[in-house]
Amino acid sequence: MDFKGSKTEANLMAAFAGESQARNKYTYYASKARKEGYNQIADLFEETANNEKEHAKIWFKLLHNDDIPDTMTNLKDAADGENYEWTDMYATFAKEAREEGFTKIAALFEMVAKIEKEHEERYLKLLQNIKDGIVFSRDEDMIWQCQNCGHIVIGKKAPQICPVCNHPQAYFQIKAENY
Questions:
Q1: Mean pLDDT for the stretch of residues 53-69
Q2: In the chain, where do the E strands start and end?
Q3: What ranges do the domains of the chain cover?
Q4: What backbone torsions phi and psi does residue 101 show, to the nearest 5 degrees?
Q5: In this predicted structure, what is the pLDDT of residue 2?
Q6: What's the Cα-to-Cα distance from 34 to each of 14, 21, 64, rounded to whole Å?
Q7: What is the reported pLDDT for 122?
Q8: What are the CA-CA distances from residue 61 to residues 22, 70, 98 (Å)?
Q9: b/e burial code for range 59-89 (CB count within 10 A of at least 16 → b)
Q10: pLDDT given at position 6
């Protein structure tokens, strides 16, 4: 379906943005309701947030020819978006906030820009890992951990199937100890 430049394309983009914002807003509301002791209300906010996510997915897929692009394309798109945020968007926002005397907000924009730069670097590294074929294999022995059951394997490659829970290789990652 070719609707580039049409009002329908603009409406799809607005619908995607609106549903995406509603999803985030409802997750914040759910957290607040839970903190205030309203678990039922929190659960309903979370349920509605999940509904909004699915609505947004409908519009997103229509904007992408009824599909979600492959992971390599998505990593490149994500890196590009993060690059724009830290090099242009937040830099401009910080400058304007500072000019208007909102120095604390300007500092927040600058700090978030640094985080967005890290996000860009992470996405580019993951993209390179796919290109280099090293997501599930390395030249040296690694500690691979199944994200489903926790099984540990030491070797150059993650197993095709976890011998404990039978989940596929996709569930394995290099174990990181950050504790």
A1: 94
A2: 137-146, 152-157, 172-174
A3: 7-63, 71-132, 137-174
A4: 90, 10
A5: 86
A6: 30, 20, 36
A7: 98
A8: 18, 12, 39
A9: bbebeeeeeeeeeeeebeebbeebbebbeeb
A10: 97
Q: Cβ–Cβ contacts within 10 Å for residue 53, how many? A: 16
- Residue 34, amino acid: R
The DSSP 8-state label assigned to residue 70 in this structure reads -
Q: How far apart are CA 33 and CA 13, in angstroms?
A: 30
What pTM value is reported for the model? 0.86
How far is Cα 11 from Cα 120, in angstroms, rounded to an integer?
Answer: 28
Spatial contact of 125 and 76, defined as CB atoms under 8 Å apart: no
Of 141, 164, 166, 163, whose CA–CA distance to 154 is shortest?
141
34 CB contacts (<8 Å, ≥6 apart)? Answer: 42
Fold of the 137-174 domain: Rubrerythrin, domain 2 (2.20.28)
d(CA 160, CA 136): 9
CATH class for domain 7-63?
mainly alpha
* Fold (CATH) for 71-132: Ferritin (1.20.1260)
